[in-house]
Design goal:
Immunoglobulin-like; 3 helices; 14% helix; stress response; A-crystallin/Hsp20_dom
C-alpha cells in the first residue's frame, strides 16, 4: 500500500499598503459595533471579579470560556400552602450528593457544587478538561415554621424543601369585629 500525498496550493494575497484603522473596520461592521455596545451596557449591570476598573473587560475580545458560565444562581420558586411552604430549586446536572441544605439562625441555605472532569486519549492528541462550579442561595425562614420538621428531597434535577408551619401558625385567622362608639 503506497501513500499518496496531495499537495494543496496555498494562495497568498498581497499585503495592503496600510492596514485599515479600527474606525474604518467599524464602519464596515455596523451590526458588530451595535452588538458590542449593547453588550457593554448590559455588562454595567453585572459585577465580576474578572474586570478592570470601570468594569471593562481585561481584553476586548470574545472569550471562548466564561468564568460566569459555571457560577450560576439556580432558579427558585417559593410557594405557600395551608400546611407550610415549599421551595423548588432547579439544579440540572447535579445529584443529591452535590447539594447541601441547612437551617441556622432563621436562614435556610441551599449550597451546591459540581466538579466535572473528562479525558480523551487518541494517538495524535490528549484532551483533559476540568470544570468546577458552585452556588449558594439563602432565604429568611418565614415566621411560624417548625424548623425541626424541615425536609428536603431531590428528583430529576429539582430540589424540593418543605418547611411545615407550626400548629400555632396553621390556626385560622381570627377576625375581630370593629364596634362603633
Amino acid at each position: 500500500m503506497t501513500k499518496v500525498e496531495t499537495k494543496v496550493p496555498v494562495a497568498t494575497a498581497a499585503k495592503p499598503e496600510s492596514a485599515p484603522s479600527t474606525v474604518q473596520m467599524q464602519i464596515w461592521r455596523p451590526f458588530e459595533s451595535l452588538r458590542r455596545e449593547v453588550d457593554r451596557l448590559f455588562e454595567d449591570f453585572t459585577a465580576s471579579p474578572f474586570r478592570l476598573p470601570f468594569r471593562r473587560p481585561a481584553f476586548d475580545i470574545e472569550p471562548f470560556w466564561s468564568p460566569e458560565a459555571w457560577v450560576a444562581v439556580p432558579a427558585v420558586d417559593f410557594v405557600e400552602r395551608d400546611t407550610g411552604y415549599e421551595v423548588h430549586a432547579d439544579l440540572p446536572g447535579l445529584d443529591e450528593k452535590d447539594v447541601e441544605v441547612s437551617v441556622a439562625g432563621g436562614v435556610l441555605t441551599i449550597k451546591g457544587q459540581k466538579h466535572e472532569e473528562t479525558e480523551e486519549k487518541k494517538p495524535d492528541f490528549h484532551l483533559r478538561e476540568r470544570r468546577f462550579g458552585s452556588f449558594e442561595r439563602a432565604f429568611r425562614v418565614p415566621a411560624g415554621v417548625d424548623a425541626d420538621r424541615i425536609e428536603a428531597s431531590f428528583k430529576k434535577g429539582v430540589l424540593t424543601v418543605v418547611l411545615p408551619k407550626s400548629a400555632e401558625a396553621q390556626k385560622p385567622v381570627k377576625t375581630i369585629a370593629v364596634k362603633a362608639e
